[in-house]
Amino acid sequence: MNWPVVALALYLTLGVELGSRAALTIAGSFVPSLLIALVALIAAFAPMTAALWIALLAGALTDLTTPVATTTGPTIVLGPSAVGFVVGTYAVLTIRGLFLRRHATSLVVLAVIAATCAGLTAAGLLAIRQITDSGFTLAGPQVISRLGSALYTAIPAALLALLWRRAMPLLGLNDPFARRWDRSG
Fold this sequence. Notes:
Elements: H1 3-24, H2 34-43, H3 48-65, H4 80-95, H5 104-132, H6 139-152, H7 154-171
């Protein structure tokens, strides 16, 4: 795995996600996550430990750049997305052997699964936080918003999946099903 290139890809993806968040928001609260799509695509081919560390870093970056609505105003809460990204990545790592990873549709499905697991985990952690701190909003709208965003993540994941074969060598990821002397990558 080529860590500097992966870090640069995460940084650029985070910048694109933050820059396009307002333009891509639909129905008031559904926002696709380009970062979870990239993390899921990396997790489809990366070693387990590296994929989990990348997920933790990407989730922490998401927590630091996405405030949570409270009764006192937007608040930065470090943890829910970080843990959610790790759970979503672990789900991808667990089921990646069942998918034909060379097909773009399989990578899109893995990204949606990762986004769903990450969103539900983050909403659950915020619901637990709501029990101890009455300033947080209700968990019901959080769940609906995160599930809708997970489904909406399929669109940027499809775009990433189309570019994925060319990006794999740059990121230092190997396709275990490619032939040794394959020149298509």
